[in-house]
Write a structure and sequence with these properties.
single chain; about 170 residues; alpha+beta; Alpha-D-Glucose-1,6-Bisphosphate, Chain A, domain 4; seven-stranded antiparallel beta sheet; 7 strands
Length: about 170
């Protein structure tokens, strides 16, 4: 009986580990703006192209959990479309997006994606914004590319996103 319990436990750990994702990039900024102003920017589909440097055009909803957004992407000349779903939202604190589908091959390179914003009110006019990206490289080639360039590219994009949020919200 004990042996069967141990086997069951090991199987569940292995199966669950396949669905766990890894933090690949994290950047944060202190922005001199109220949390409400930053929340308004990161949940407004009309401003996504001003926040995310790769987005040319976007449609859908960014303000209701469970909704999707469709983004036309131009990433250094690579064009395509990405559909993402808002899988978690804690108003004025957190958003979590995941890739549903894309035409650029991102979903073939990354599994269990999570693109996260965490907002923390520091003062009435000061907010800590943390941008995190979690995923697992989906195959051997993706693991190699992740080590060589993907993590660095994502981190650089996060830095630009935070800079853009600062520009749009600081007065």
């Amino acid at each position: 009986m004990l042996f069967a319990s141990i086997i069951f436990y090991i199987r569940s750990v292995i199966q669950n580990s396949k669905h766990m994702n890894t933090l690949q990039a994290r950047n944060e900024a202190i922005i001199n703006a109220p949390v409400e102003s930053i929340w308004a920017i990161i949940t407004d589909i009309r401003t996504l192209h001003k926040v995310n440097p790769g987005v040319v055009k976007a449609s859908g909803r960014m303000d209701i959990q469970g909704e999707t957004r469709t983004c036309e992407i131009n990433n250094n000349g690579r064009k395509g479309t990405m559909v993402e779903r808002l899988i978690e939202m804690d108003p004025q604190k957190k958003t979590v997006w995941t890739i549903e589908s894309d035409t650029m091959g991102m979903s073939k390179m990354m599994s269990d994606t999570r693109f996260i914003f965490n907002l923390e009110k520091i003062a009435d006019n000061k907010t800590k914004v943390v941008n995190e990206t979690y995923y697992n490289p989906a195959n051997l080639m993706a693991k190699i590319m992740n080590a060589l360039m993907m993590k660095r590219m994502i981190s650089k994009a996060q830095e630009q996103i935070l800079s853009n949020i600062r520009s749009l919200t600081e007065k």
